[in-house]
């Protein structure tokens, strides 16, 4: 099997990938329908109302970050995901019935958005951390990238299908169709082989909620990554607001809005697949992805037609997924396994929790000054995020002059993270039987200058 798809050699990961793909398609269908119904059915093209809906949906991951991360670390993630997926299934059915019967109101939609946000706050860190439970440590980065590919393949299909369904049968049926797709994820979780899971959590280690925050505070590389992710999540990743208002500006309907989301997904899928080919996640790609997003957003501001704007969204999707997939993989592969759930909960809270801050502002700017000004604001913030990454790289001492070429610079690899302890899975009977162990009593009794007895050598110091 090629390096890009090496995680597919694991049965549990194959089952997970299929179930996640089906569920993600439904999730993108519902997200498209929800944004469109708020913009065109519950309000007279009010982008600010869409911003409020997004803020209510993405605020809980930020407000509940300590609790959700602790739950992801201390409880069975597989069972937890089954519970959250079942709860979202019930919510989708209720939303669909209310829309089909014509009794849905804007305050009710706000309430459902908040409820969905609370469930998602527990679902996201559990799902993100569960990916590392499916494969061995050396394939974790590849599994994260393929997971992003599944997400963006669904993003390619879901919005386009939702746009057509809205035109043909109405928004309510999109929510009901999404409810059916949750069964795919639940079936996949039931079909897994629990004994083959590579479980890293619930093995002791720090148990307090604040330990995740303390861990991140001691990692400047994670602090910089989280700062960049927050800025893009708050002001840059408001695609529903940008795409829907630009679709209306170009005189397009729900199908045109859904198609724009699919163009974002084309670039996103390409970025995720390229990330899957890389052996490891590096900070430099996070920084380059932020810069690429800034450039793509700038091009979107000056797009003269619907077609050219759609073309810029391909670059936008590629850049943002390159950044976020690399950032996610970097966090997962360099974090202490005992704290991974809490750190990922904090990562997701910063990524999604920035939306309540930025979405209302971006929605207001789009409503008052037009969508192009709102996109320009996201470009400025993305350039700032890239600048933070560049400044940290220069300050960290990783940039040097090339040894032989005068006008060329070199960039060191990310320095080893000494706070990550070896995982229990790295210890085996074979290692125990072949690793030399020093005998302190023999060392003390051996005369100075005498040779080591055969078979007694100093074991190398463990490195992170």
pLDDT < 50 stretches? 201-207, 415-464
| Sheet with most strands | 2 strands, antiparallel
- Span between N and C termini? 30 Å
Structural class: mainly alpha
The proportion of residues forming helix, as a percent range, comes to: over 70%
**Radius of gyration from the alpha-carbon trace, in angstroms:** 24 Å
Mean pLDDT metric = 81
Strand share of the residues? under 5%
Number of strands: 2
Word description of this protein:
The protein starts with 10 loop residues before the first helix and ends in a 19-residue tail after the last helix. With 464 residues, it is an all-alpha fold. The protein contains 18 helices and 2 strands. Helices cover 72% and strands 1% of the residues. α3 packs antiparallel against α14.
Give a quick summary of the entry.
This protein is mainly α and 464 residues long. It has 18 helices and two strands.
Any chance you could write out the topology, listing elements then pairs?
Layout: H1 11-41, H2 47-63, H3 65-74, H4 77-100, H5 106-134, H6 140-168, H7 171-191, H8 211-217, H9 220-236, H10 239-249, H11 254-277, H12 283-301, H13 306-334, H14 340-353, H15 355-369, H16 371-395, E1 399-401, E2 409-411, H17 429-434, H18 440-445
Helix pairs in contact: 1-6, 1-7, 2-5, 2-14, 2-15, 3-5, 3-14, 4-5, 4-7, 5-6, 5-14, 6-7, 6-11, 6-13, 8-14, 9-12, 9-14, 9-15, 9-16, 10-11, 10-16, 11-13, 12-13, 12-16, 15-16
């Amino acid at each position: 099997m090629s390096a890009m798809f090496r995680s597919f050699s694991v049965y549990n990961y194959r089952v997970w990938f299929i179930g996640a793909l089906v569920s993600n398609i439904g999730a993108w269908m519902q997200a498209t329908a929800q944004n469109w119904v708020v913009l065109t059915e519950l309000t007279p093209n009010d982008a600010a109302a869409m911003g409020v809906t997004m803020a209510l949906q993405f605020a809980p991951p930020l407000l509940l970050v300590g609790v959700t991360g602790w739950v992801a670390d201390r409880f069975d993630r597989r069972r937890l995901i089954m519970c959250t997926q079942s709860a979202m299934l019930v919510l989708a059915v209720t939303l669909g019935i209310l829309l089909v019967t014509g009794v849905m109101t804007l305050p009710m939609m706000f309430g459902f958005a908040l409820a969905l946000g609370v469930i998602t706050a527990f679902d996201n860190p559990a799902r993100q951390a569960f990916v590392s439970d499916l494969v061995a440590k050396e394939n974790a980065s590849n599994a994260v990238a393929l997971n992003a590919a599944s997400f963006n393949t669904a993003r390619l299909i879901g919005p386009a299908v939702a746009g057509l369904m809205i035109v043909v049968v109405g928004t309510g049926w999109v929510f009901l169709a999404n409810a059916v797709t949750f069964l795919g994820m639940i079936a996949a979780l039931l079909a897994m082989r629990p004994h083959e899971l590579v479980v890293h959590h619930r093995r002791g280690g720090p148990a307090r909620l604040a330990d995740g925050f303390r861990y991140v505070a001691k990692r400047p590389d994670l602090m910089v990554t989280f700062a960049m992710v927050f800025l893009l999540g708050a002001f840059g990743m408001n695609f529903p607001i940008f795409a829907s208002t630009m679709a209306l500006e170009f005189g397009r309907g729900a199908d045109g809005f859904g198609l724009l989301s699919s163009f974002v997904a084309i670039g996103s899928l390409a970025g995720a697949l390229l990330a899957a080919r890389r052996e490891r996640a590096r900070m430099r790609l996070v920084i380059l992805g932020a810069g690429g997003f800034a450039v793509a957003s700038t091009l979107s501001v000056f797009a003269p037609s619907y077609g050219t704007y759609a073309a810029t969204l391909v670059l936008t999707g590629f850049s943002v997924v390159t950044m976020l997939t690399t950032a996610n993989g970097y966090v997962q592969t360099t974090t202490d396994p005992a704290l991974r759930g809490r750190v990922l909960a904090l990562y997701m809270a910063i990524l999604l929790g920035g939306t309540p801050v930025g979405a209302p502002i971006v929605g207001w700017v789009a409503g008052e000054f037009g969508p192009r000004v709102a996109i320009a604001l996201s470009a400025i913030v993305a350039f700032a995020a890239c600048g933070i990454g560049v400044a940290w790289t220069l300050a960290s001492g990783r940039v040097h002059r090339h040894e032989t070429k005068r006008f060329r610079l070199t960039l060191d690899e990310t320095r080893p993270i000494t706070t990550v302890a070896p995982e229990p899975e790295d210890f085996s009977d074979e290692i125990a039987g072949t690793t030399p162990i020093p005998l302190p009593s023999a060392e003390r009794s051996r005369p100075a200058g005498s040779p080591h007895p055969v078979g007694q050598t100093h074991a190398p110091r463990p490195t992170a």
